[in-house]
């Protein structure tokens, strides 16, 4: 089966993105496709698979997202920006409400964060601070800047659902070895977190600046995770490190976004939705293989614009 897709990224979080509005695949096939296309050792690679899917009476379109292990996520905000841009381009619109797996999000085109960098604004929420919604079993009703009994870390965490589950802790300096160790423990589906969780270590680098490093559920240590950046913005406001309604710059290994948390727990993120290449690949679902991957169109101008932004951040 021949499948066309875009290779895209939001803040360095990269994905194959398929216009699946007329694509009929079963759930096992989608999981297989995610494992094949997002395999870093394969011909495409990515942090997961995105699909633009049909909307309904209240949604212009929808988005589905699978992690690289084939599991489906509730949301992916970096991926949402890319999917929204594709939906806008195909439908000739500039704003929409998007249907996600268990929630909705408002999306719109936004002023560029840098010259030539297509920028999309997402508004997600209300989000939840209920420990049960985060998937914590046997924990207090809320966990905000507090140690979690049973977690193999003495650090104080804030637990939020975006709606996917996040554990956020603020650190002086990110220790990646510690982060990976804790993330892998969560991947083991312990009794405390049977559905796993995303884990982020966050440095406060100024009065309105955060640096986020995340071990992403179903993916591992990643240069960028959009929902983790949103969870970090919300957690910073919930713990008094920033103010509700304040615009915060959020940096990670992949780049940066603008963020804002409101008192009703809604979070706005504005960041890039960069299209790098249009590709076609042949998929053999029975054999579980990919072949014939080829680039149909390279978006060199978008790559260059993003590269210029990263170069500016590095100075």
Q: How would you describe this structure to a colleague?
A:
With 315 residues, the protein is of the alpha+beta class. It is built from 6 helices and 18 strands. The chain has an 18-stranded mixed sheet that branches. A hairpin with a 3-residue loop joins β9 (158-161) and β10 (165-170).
Mean pLDDT: 94
Shape: globular
Regions with little confidence, pLDDT below 50 for 5+ residues? none
How much helix, percentage-wise, in residues? 10-25%
End-to-end separation in angstroms reads 46 Å
Order of helices and strands: EEHEEEHEEEHEEHEEEHEEEEEH
User: Can you count the helices?
Assistant: 6
Strand content: 35-45%
- Integer-rounded radius of gyration: 19 Å
The count of strands amounts to: 18
* Major sheet attributes: 18 strands, mixed
- Class computed from helices, strands and strand pairing: alpha+beta
Labels describing this entry:
alpha+beta
In short:
With 315 residues, the protein is of the alpha+beta class. 22% of the residues lie in helices and 37% in strands.
């Amino acid at each position: 089966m021949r499948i066309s897709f875009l290779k895209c990224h939001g803040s360095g979080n990269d994905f194959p993105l398929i216009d699946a509005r007329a694509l009929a695949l079963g759930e096992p096939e989608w999981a297989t496709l995610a494992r094949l296309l997002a395999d870093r050792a394969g011909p495409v690679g990515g942090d997961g698979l995105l699909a633009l899917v049909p909307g309904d009476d209240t949604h212009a379109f929808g988005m589905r997202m699978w992690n690289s292990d084939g599991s489906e996520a509730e949301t992916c905000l970096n991926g949402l920006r890319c999917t929204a841009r594709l939906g806008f381009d195909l439908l000739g619109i500039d704003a929409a409400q998007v249907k996600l797996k268990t929630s909705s999000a408002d999306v719109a085109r936004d002023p560029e964060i840098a010259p030539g960098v297509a920028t999309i604004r997402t508004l997600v929420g209300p989000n939840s601070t209920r420990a049960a919604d985060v998937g914590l079993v046997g924990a207090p009703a809320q966990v905000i800047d507090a140690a979690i009994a049973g977690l193999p870390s003495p650090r104080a965490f804030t637990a939020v659902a975006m709606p996917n589950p996040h554990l956020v802790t603020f650190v002086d300096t990110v220790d990646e070895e510690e982060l990976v160790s804790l993330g892998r423990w969560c991947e083991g589906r312990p009794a405390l977190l049977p559905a796993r969780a995303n884990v982020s270590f966050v440095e406060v680098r100024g009065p309105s600046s955060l640096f986020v490093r995340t071990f992403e559920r179903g993916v591992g240590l990643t240069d960028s995770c959009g929902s983790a950046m949103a969870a970090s913005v919300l957690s910073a406001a919930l713990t008094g490190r920033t103010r509700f309604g304040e615009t915060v710059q959020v940096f990670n290994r992949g780049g940066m976004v603008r963020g804002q948390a409101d008192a009703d727990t809604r979070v706005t993120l504005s960041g890039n939705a960069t299209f790098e290449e249009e590709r076609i690949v042949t998929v053999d679902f029975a054999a579980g293989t990919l072949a014939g991957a080829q680039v149909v169109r390279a978006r060199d101008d978008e790559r260059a614009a993003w590269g210029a932004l990263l170069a500016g951040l590095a100075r």
